[in-house]
Amino acid sequence: MEKKFKNLIAISLIISMVCSLSINSFAATTAGQEMRTQVLYLADVIENDNMMNDFITRGEFSRMVVKASPYKDSVSAYDSNSGFSDVLTDYQYASFIKVAAKEGYMTSYLGGLFKPLDYLTYKDLTRACLALLGYTNDDFSGSQIAGRLETFSSLKLNDNIDKGITDFVTKKDAVNAIYNTLKTNKKGGTSAYGPTVFTNLSVNSDGDLNATGLTKTKLEGPFILKRGEALNLSIPFDITLANIFINGVSATLETTFRELSNNGYLIYYYNEATKTIYLYKEGTTLESSTMVKKGYVNHIYYSASDTITPTRVEIDLAYYTLGTSEAKFAFSYTGTISVGDQIIFIYTKNDDTSTSEDSSGDGTVTTAGTITSAYIYDLKY
Description:
Elements: H1 15-24, H2 33-42, H3 58-67, H4 94-102, H5 122-132, H6 144-154, H7 171-182, H8 194-197, E1 202-203, E2 209-210, H9 212-216, E3 219-226, E4 243-246, E5 249-251, H10 253-263, E6 265-271, E7 276-280, E8 290-303, E9 306-315, E10 318-322, H11 325-330, E11 342-349, E12 353-354, E13 365-376
Parallel strand pairs: 4-7, 10-13
Antiparallel strand pairs: 1-2, 3-6, 4-5, 6-7, 8-9, 8-11, 9-10, 11-13, 12-13
Helix pairs in contact: 2-7, 3-4, 5-6, 5-7
């Protein structure tokens, strides 16, 4: 049954294993700034996570608020003639300004001006977020500004924001306000606003946003980075600008190279849209019970009734059930992994007792887990 292979063989890993870690590992109870930014990046509400402490212009914010609205995918249907004399048709945010003004998310100035290059004020920010939730002028009696500020605060849309009514807001302030808006119930509603706009967005039991679904659609991998290989040659964006996570913890390029040197290899995924790289090393818990491990294949077992498809393997004297069709094929006669091969594998710990009959004649055995993915470990270092 032994076969010799020189190339790395990757059997696809269930993406949800990585997605849950990559998003949920940013914070436990209260979402940190890094997570808030990442969620809005994944949702395409913000274009990048650069210069978060800079003031945001009204033009830039028009894109944010529209991208967080039900009109996020229909902006192209609007022409770039915003209707404002100070917004040129070739201005990159012209169409967003037109939608933002038409839907009441943002207001204009006397004389038909929008002032797209002016910085956004806290007053403008409160209006936009409340408008997303369905609030209009009719919901505020007396002073409109005071009413909006009070509602904005009572809904906790100002969490992680410390500004006065006329203060300019930063990009980070805008991210926090939109994030808070997405996880808040619509006016008169009983469910969060965000999932009504983004079908792949949900709210965790702790009240924070879970963007696992958004990540699933954009994640590339798995791949293996071996000691001596250059990460920048495998990633389609500038890694010096990337957000990097190792085992779900924020890391630097220096840390990545050190871990690669120490471990010999790292499994990685990347998201080009968010310029994020997720790396995992041996012993990693991808989820609560899913692990990455390396070992030698001692035996491959087949069912007594099916001698073509393997059901179980022994790796370093521990038994593992083969849980996916890809894994079963890899360990089969026509597959890529043989007895004696050193492999990297991803498995779900179960410690259950298997009662399947196979060619070993053992009958009932205790398995350490179920393999979902495997790789030939062919490092020559």
